[in-house]
Design a protein that fits this description.
- The chain is of the alpha/beta class.
- It folds into 2 domains: about 170 residues, Rossmann fold; about 80 residues, no CATH class.
- The protein is about 40% helix and about 25% strand.
- The protein has 11 helices and 10 strands.
- A 6-stranded mixed beta sheet has the order 6-7-8-3-9-10, sandwiched between helices.
- Helix 3 runs parallel beside helix 6.
- It starts with 5 loop residues before the first strand and ends with a helix.
- Bound molecules: adenosine-5'-diphosphate and magnesium ion (MG).
């Protein structure tokens, strides 16, 4: 049992797309500073879970409580401002824009500052931008010493691992309390995946209070970074526990390997 206060409490979360139940009564609690891994076969509802948490879709039932506050009815930008940030399964970086521009656009998207707002509060806004760039440069440097120097280069010129780093930094720029990572190792080779794991370790050391939920197919990553693992299948949470508990769980093994292989 966790002694830290829980940051996020999800209860009975249900999402339907027409007749399809993509999430079916899911309960998940995340404590402050905790990293929770989410696994499950394709189509089991993992990304839908993130979409519900970030206000991109409206759940059919259930409750999401973040920092003691119910998120029902809040729009995505309001939820982002409360402190939930994410990366997407498919990169949403603008390859033609610079590293810093991508990071600033990401911050701005969570703020919804209008033109009038921007003019009236320009001083404060620019100050916040400067602080964010400094903070992000520090983090980029920890990931890869060359990256801050390449902040004005187009993201399209960076290798895959550095693009992923920029995405993570973009999510962290607004100082979220909860970071959602949707399959960060997708498309990476084993060396890049190992680097990604080291990056996530750095994030943990730099931001010990940050909570993380990471969706991953790579069990090596899940084992390396998560303190607790939740397994989904057909929209239901079928298991929860330590990596060792999950890896030995029969229904999880069946979901991944098929019934026959799981018994072998
Ligand atoms: N916007 C949508 N409209 C209709 N069906 C969707 C939508 N998003 C996801 N689904 C369906 O919901 C199920 C869960 O999808 P998803 O959460 O993306 O799975 P995962 O991320 O675990 O691979 C799948 O059957 C998928 O086809
Ligand atoms: Mg997905």
């Amino acid at each position: 049992m966790s002694v830290s206060p829980s940051l996020l409490e999800v209860a009975g979360l249900t999402v339907r797309f027409g007749g399809l139940v993509a999430l079916d009564g899911v309960d998940v609690v995340v404590a402050e500073g905790e990293t929770v891994g989410v696994i499950g076969p394709n189509g089991s509802g993992k990304t839908t879970f993130f979409n519900a948490l970030t206000g991109l879709l409206v759940p059919a039932a259930g409750e999401i409580v973040f920092l003691g506050r119910r998120l029902a009815g809040l729009e995505a930008h309001a939820i982002a401002r409360l402190g939930i940030a994410r990366t997407f399964q498919a990169s949403r970086l603008c390859l033609a824009l610079s590293v810093f521009d991508n990071i600033l656009i990401g911050m701005h998207a969570g703020r919804r500052t209008g033109v009038v707002d921007f003019v009236v509060r320009r001083g404060r806004f620019l100050g916040e931008m400067r602080t964010a760039i400094e903070r992000v440069s520090h983090l980029l440097a920890l990931f890869n010493g060359d990256l801050p120097r390449r902040g004005f280069e187009r993201v399209g010129q960076l290798p895959q691992i550095d693009r992923r780093r920029v995405e993570i930094c973009r999510a962290l720029a607004a100082e979220p309390k909860l970071l959602l990572l949707d399959e960060p190792s997708a498309g990476m080779n084993p060396e890049e995946t190992a680097e990604l794991m080291r990056d996530l370790q750095i994030v943990r050391e730099e931001m010990p209070g940050l909570s993380v939920i990471i969706i991953e197919h790579d069990m090596f990553v899940i084992e390396g970074v998560s303190q607790r693992v939740v397994a989904f299948n057909y929209g239901r949470k079928i298991a929860e526990g330590s990596f060792a508990e999950i890896a030995g769980h029969e229904e999880v093994r069946e979901a991944y390997l098929g019934k026959e292989a799981a018994r072998a």
